[in-house]
């Protein structure tokens, strides 16, 4: 059971336990990503930590220095802001596929939009990924 309240979703887990959250990415009819209300304070800390790294002044990483599974900062194509991401595939043509670990969305980016250094790694160690994966129960994706 879920109810919608002012742009947020409240998931009911039974026993009158509810988790206020924000859906951050809908992948298909059964898979989505969300952040709980508790994530809000942590996300502020993550944003501050990334801002403190001055990523625009950091040299881009070389494609040969990237591998699948690397934790990086990636500049999101829509708003040009830096977010934490995980490299899911190095394409070998100057581009990589990434998943934004705090939101669940994915995109293909040129390597020049990727940064990798110890400060970014420390940010991942200090604050785990904030996107939670959710599935709709008793639903399945139709093959059309």
Query: Which oligomeric form is depicted?
Result: single chain
Structural class: alpha+beta
Averaging pLDDT over every residue, what do you get?
A: 88
Distance between the termini: 27 Å
| Helicity level | 10-25%
Order of helices and strands: EEEEHEEEEEHE
The tally of strands reads 10
Residue runs with pLDDT of under 50 for 5 or more positions = 1-6
Spatial order of strands in the largest sheet: 1-2-3-4-10
SSE order and pairing:
Elements: E1 2-5, E2 8-12, E3 18-26, E4 31-36, H1 39-52, E5 71-75, E6 82-90, E7 95-100, E8 106-110, E9 114-115, H2 118-126, E10 132-135
Folded structure, characterized:
With 144 residues, the protein is of the alpha+beta class. The protein is built from two helices and ten strands. It has helices at 39-52, 118-126, and strands spanning 2-5, 8-12, 18-26, 31-36, 71-75, 82-90, 95-100, 106-110, 114-115, 132-135. It has a five-stranded antiparallel beta sheet with strand order 1-2-3-4-10, with no helix packed on it. The chain has a five-stranded antiparallel beta sheet with strand order 8-7-6-5-9. β3 (18-26) and β4 (31-36) form a beta hairpin. The longest helix has 14 residues, at 39-52. The radius of gyration is 17 Å and the shape is globular. The relative contact order is 0.20. Residues 1-6 have low confidence and may be disordered.
């Amino acid at each position: 059971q879920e109810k919608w309240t002012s742009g947020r979703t409240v998931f009911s887990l039974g026993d009158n336990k509810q988790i206020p959250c924000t859906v951050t990415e809908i992948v298909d009819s059964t898979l989505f990503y969300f952040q709980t209300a508790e994530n809000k304070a942590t996300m502020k800390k993550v944003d501050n930590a990334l801002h403190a790294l001055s990523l625009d002044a950091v040299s881009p990483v070389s494609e040969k220095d990237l591998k699948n599974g690397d934790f990086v900062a990636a500049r999101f194509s829509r708003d040009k802001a830096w977010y934490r991401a995980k490299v899911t595939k190095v394409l070998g043509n100057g581009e990589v596929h990434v998943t934004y670990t705090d939101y669940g969305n994915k995109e293909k980016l040129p390597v020049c939009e990727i940064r990798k250094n110890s400060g970014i790694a420390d940010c991942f160690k200090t604050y785990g990924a904030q996107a939670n994966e959710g599935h709709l129960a008793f639903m399945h994706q139709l093959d059309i």
